[in-house]
Please model this.
Amino acid sequence: MPQRPTTRLRRLIGGDGIHVAPGAYDGLSARLVEESGSELLYASGGAIARSFGVPDIGLLSLSEVVARIEQMVEVTSLPVIADADTGFGNAVNAVRTLALYERAGVAGMHIEDQTFPKRCGHLDDKSLVSTDEMVRKVRAVHEARTDPDFVLVARTDAIATEGLDAAVERAHAYAEAGADVIFVEAPETVEQIERIAERVPQPKLINMFHGGKTPVVPRERLRELGYRLVIVPSDLQRAVITAVRRTLEAINRDGDSGAVREDLASFADRERVVRTAEYLALGS
Model:
């Protein structure tokens, strides 16, 4: 009998390997992540927000985010780690968020200690709730899980506002409250990444992408340091933005996309990705 996604994710973080979760934001990008051979998928809150055409500053409602996550879970067999922002409010809101995420079928989620509404972890001018408030939120979610294998990731954005020592102290408090994985967001140097690894013994998640505040560190080095999960939240979406702009430039200039046709998926490949033949066969 196949393992539940929650169990698969929990076993991955319990080992000594490191596992990369590319960020998806809709059903098509989720299909492509699985097709690539990735073993995990990250449902990126920031990428989901931008796919709505709005910035990652807490503008989407819980129901909007859950609806998109459901679309992704439905079309992939990969364990999905989902961004749950602040839990969309206080501890009570976070418990409801957990219930909806569990119902949607995600394998784990991360909640953060920013005030609500939050903003992207690599933007400036963030503000945090108290450690005690976040501890209550983590504990409430931990105790409310209906699946004991569901993975709870606690994120702290304290480096930017309170410094590294405070971020580590918060990490310890969140782990003691029941977090399975610790996510210290936006370390700004390799030295900070290493110091987090030395001082936080729990399984750790790190955010890796080019152009943010955190330097990109080779995966093997991160594994040696004890990081178990790497999320790459927005690179697929950034690639799409560039590709769409190039195609639009050709269309607006020439009236068609012939100039970039070698860069386009074929008609047949497009239909294969969304499994058109399989769906049509169901009705025959």
DSSP finds 13 helices and eight strands in the chain. The mean pLDDT is 95.
